Amino acid sequence: MPEDELTPARIVAELDKYIVGQNDAKRAVAVAVRNRWRRRQLPADMAQDVIPRNILMIGPTGVGKTEIARRLAALVQAPFIKVEATKYTEVGYVGRDVESMIRDLLEVAIRMISDEQKQAMQEKARQQAQDRLVDLLLPLDTPATDAEARERQQRSRAKIKAQLEAGEFENKTVDVPVEQRAAPPGMMGVIGMDQMDSPGGLSEMFEKFMPGRTVKRNMKVSDARDVLAAQEAEKLVDREAVARLAIERTEHSGMVFLDELDKVAGNAEGRSGPDISRQGVQRDLLPIVEGSAVNTRHGIVHTDHILFIAAGAFHSAKPSDLMPELQGRFPIRVELSDLTREDFVRILREPKHSLLKQHIALLAAEKLDLSFTDDAIDALAGFAFNVNRTTQNIGARRLSTILEKLLEDISFDAPALNGQRRVISAAEVNEKLARVAADEDLSRYVL
């Protein structure tokens, strides 16, 4: 829907289709996204001073933190990446530098805009692919030297093109030129992504000094058309315009989901070793979140208006253990609650593509009609809730493990059960899972 129609209430309603509960977090991200649209309605000088209200989500794993951010980005068509704070190291240590997250975000934006341009050029690319197919079906070994010969060639080409449009050559094979590009043998094993993607880095060197080679692949016309259309669409993309638009979209619509922020929390005063490194990562994150200029191979990206959503369980650390300056850059704090038994029931039943609906659809591909009784769903929710309570709490992810255990025999035998109908009852759920769940040691291993 148009961006101006994405009110906070509508954003929350869309998120409700996929995520159960956590209304405080949904409302917070909805307002943050709406504020970005509001900022663009302001005079330019004021808009420049309006910084994003970054969000810190606090809650255990599996309660919807990542899913809220991911669904939000898809809803507003924003460049989005999820990164883990623990992947980064203080400058001077081996590991990824924090600026690489912005380079990764820009690459996501470039792919988005390239795909949009290709989609817009689809019809033109298809027509050019048809012309290339005519060339492959009727190669012109020697150019016509007089008007009469040129006219004959044009008539022949028109006839071939008409037959091609009518589908008469779909099973005929042609040799399609395909470009292959590869890095020098052994190089990819000794370089990192930061070296590849940095401005003036090795990826630019490879493109300059390692040109691709063209090989011919024999394929049917029906397959060649798609390959050629993709090649023609690629040619129609304006790379400079894509990079320029991608930088603009990254700067004004980009979203970074920074997970496991609690793992780099900790006060380094009077400490050494890992705590010093964690404090260093925080110091390196600070200018990115505050607003800085990041050099990329496509140009400079300013991070002032990128929305950062950080998350962490904060079991052994507290948000106040973060550097004060970094705390101040996440003014909105929302706590996500543990999932109740009723939440698990709703997660199984309500989301648009719930786990139950996914399993039912997968087995329907084998012509197996699978369904669950209401008491079976209640029993599944009860097992998930109790196992989370007695072992490690991994939230809604527990449902996936329990369902796989419940359906492993049916999934294995599904091809032989073609056309049958299976109804899963609470008795079957209890029979499959009760013994495993009752044995705490076995439950830790299996569920």
Structure description:
With 447 residues, this protein is an alpha/beta fold. It is 53% helix and 13% strand. The chain has 19 helices and 11 strands. It has helices at 8-16, 23-40, 44-47, 65-76, 100-120, 122-137, 147-165, 193-197, 202-209, 221-236, 239-253, 274-290, 324-328, 341-349, 355-364, 374-390, 397-413, 426-438, 440-446; strands at residues 55-58, 80-84, 173-180, 213-220, 255-259, 293-296, 299-302, 307-312, 332-335, 369-372, 421-424. The strands form 4 sheets. Strands 2-5-8-1-9 form a 5-stranded parallel β-sheet, with helices on both faces. The chain has a two-stranded antiparallel ribbon with strand order 3-4. Strands 6-7 form a two-stranded antiparallel ribbon. A hairpin with a 2-residue loop joins strand 6 (293-296) and strand 7 (299-302). Helix 16 crosses helix 17. The two termini are 41 Å apart.
Give the neighbour order of strands across the main sheet: 2-5-8-1-9
Question: Would you tell me the structural class of the helices and strands?
Answer: alpha/beta
Helix content: 40-55%
Mean pLDDT, all residues: 82
What is the global morphology? flat
Q: What is the succession of H and E elements?
A: HHHEHEHHHEHHEHHEHEEEHEHHEHHEHH
The largest β sheet comes out as:
5 strands, parallel
Low-confidence stretches: 187-193, 268-274
Number of continuous helical runs? 19
The rounded distance between the terminal residues' Cα atoms is 41 Å
Radius of gyration: 28 Å
Share of β-strand residues: 5-15%
Q: Could you give the count of β-strands?
A: 11
Keyword list:
447 residues; alpha/beta; five-stranded parallel sheet; two-stranded antiparallel sheet; 53% helix; flat
